[in-house]
Design brief:
This protein is an all-alpha fold and 84 residues long. It has three helices and no strands. Helix 1 runs antiparallel to helix 2. The chain starts with a helix and ends with a helix.
């Protein structure tokens, strides 16, 4: 996932799908909240951790630190803008 496009798609596509599903009433409000919680607490930190490891910004042993809120904020430039 070193490609910036692949990272952006993997981060923003699930949010777009959630919005589509809730706007078209395919999922209930409770399901939306749970899916958004899973996205924010599990999916996004995991994808960000994998990208940071591939960019050699963190060690694999630091992967679990991504699940601490705001821990990877200092790497936001590398996550969202670095092309390497």
């Amino acid at each position: 996932m070193k490609s910036i496009l692949a990272y952006h798609l993997s981060i923003f596509l699930p949010l777009g799908l959630l919005m589509f599903f809730i706007n078209n009433h395919y999922i209930s409000n409770n399901q939306f909240v749970w899916l958004l919680f899973i996205y924010a607490c599990i999916y996004h930190p995991a994808i960000s951790g994998v990208r940071l490891i591939e960019l050699h910004k963190i060690k694999p042993s630091e992967f679990l630190m991504n699940f601490i809120p705001m821990w990877n904020w200092k790497y936001s430039y590398f996550l969202f803008f670095a092309k390497k």
